Amino acid sequence: xxxxxxxxxxxxxxxxxxxxxxxxxxxxxxxxxxxxxxxxxxxxxxxxxxxxxxxxxxxxxxxxxxxxxxxxxxxxxxxxxxxxxxxxxxxxxxxxxxx
Length: 99
What we know:
Elements: H1 3-10, E1 15-25, E2 32-42, E3 48-51, E4 67-71, H2 74-84, E5 92-94
Parallel strand pairs: 1-4, 4-5
Antiparallel strand pairs: 1-2, 2-3
């Protein structure tokens, strides 16, 4: 196990979700108009979640402090949560800032 993952576990994280949404936007806007699909994997358990347009109803996550969400440009993923009516996760690691 990578040392950084053990450090995350030491902080009380039980699920380490790496996720990505695909969505459509209107010209000239950056917020999603329609969420198309989502894929996520929990690095700690190896579980995968793949949701197409017909399965995006209920949020599959707890969205509490026991979960950490990793994304590239997390603001886009957060907008998808809002568009779907899902609660926003309280903990994000946005790797876009490293760019």
